[in-house]
Amino acid sequence: MSITEELKATAKAMVAEGKGILAADESFGTANKRFQKLGIPQTEEMRRAYREMLFTSTGMNKFISGVILFDETIRQSTKEGVPFTKVLLKAGIIPGIKLDAGAKPLAGAPQELITEGLDGLRERIAEYYNMGARFAKWRAVITIGEKIPSKLCLQANADALARYAALCIEGGLVPIVEPEVLMDGNQTIAQSLEVHQETLHTVFERLYLYRVPFEQMILKPSMVISGTDCAEQASVEDVAQLTVKCLLDCVPSSVPGCVFLSGGQSDQLATAHLNAMNVIFKGKLPWTLSFSYGRALQQAAMQTWLGKDANVTAAQKAFSMRAQLNSAAALGQYSSEMEKIASNN
Prior knowledge:
This protein is α/β, with parallel strands linked by helices. It has one domain (3-344): TIM Barrel, CATH 3.20.20. The protein has 13 helices and 10 strands. It has helices at 3-14, 28-37, 44-55, 71-74, 84-90, 121-130, 151-171, 189-209, 236-250, 267-280, 295-305, 312-330, 336-344; strands at residues 20-24, 64-69, 94-98, 103-105, 113-115, 135-142, 174-181, 218-219, 257-260, 288-293. Strands 8-7-6-3-2-1-10-9 form an 8-stranded parallel sheet. α7 links the parallel β6 and β7. α7 (151-171) packs across α8 (189-209) and α10 packs antiparallel against α11. The protein is globular and about 50 Å long.
C-alpha cells in the first residue's frame, strides 16, 4: 500500500461509523493539575497507571477508533511491560501523537496566542511513525475579545497548522487540524459563528496553499456556542444548527470527518450537542460528525479511579459508559434517558 493509500485508509478508519477519538494527550502540567484536585499523587507512575486503566478497558474498540497520546505516554508500557502502542493496536485502535509544543504569547498581539513546535518536526514525525503512531494532532488557540482575534493571530496560527499538516502527510501521519475557538468570554452565539467562520476560512486557505490533500486529514473543530459569560445561552438545537452551518460554509466535502473537541463543556452537554447535529442533519452531510473528547470522556473515570487499584474496574466501566453514550450521539441515537440509565448502573 502506498503512503497516499495508507493515509486515506487511516483517515477513513478514524471516523468509522459510531466511533470517535480519545484525546489522552494531556501534558504533565494538565494531568498533574487534574490529579491534584482529586488528591491523586502527581507522579509519572500514577500517570502511567491511569493511562493503562483507560487503554485496557474492555470493549473500548467498539466506540473508540484512535487515541491521541502525549510524548511521555507513547513511550510507556503496561505493568507487564507491553508498550501502550501495542496494547492499542492489538485492540484495533489507531495510536496517534500530539505534536505541538503548546500555545505561547504571540509577539505584537497582546492577549493572543501562537502554537509552537515546528522546529525539528520532520524528525519527530519520523520517530513517532516508527513507534507506531499513524496520526497526529496540532492545536491552535483562538480567543474572542475586544478587537480580537486579529488577522495576525488567525493567519499565524493557520500557517503553523498548514506547515504541520504538510509535514505529517510527507511523513505518513494523518494530521488532525485543531483550530479551537475558546468558549471563554461574553460573546453571543452570533459572534461565535462569525469568528469560527473567519478562522476556518483562513485555515483551509492555508491548507490549500501548502498542498495538504483534504481527503488525508481530519478536522477537529470547536462547536459554535455562546461564551461562558454570555447572559443568553444558546439552546442545544441552535448550537447544532449554527455549528453545521459554519462547517458547510467552510469545510471542503473531501474532508473525511470532523471530530469535535469538548472545549470545557460538561460531559452531558458535549454529548447532547453532537447528537443534535447528527439527528437534524442525518444523511445530509458530506463528512462524518463525531467526537475527539478528552475531559468529557475521562472525567467520570478519573473521579472514580482516584489512583487506587481497587477502583480500576469501576473506573473502566465509567469510561466505557461515557464512550458508549458519545458513540450513540455520533449515530444520532443518544437521549437524556440514557444518562439516567448510565448513572444507575
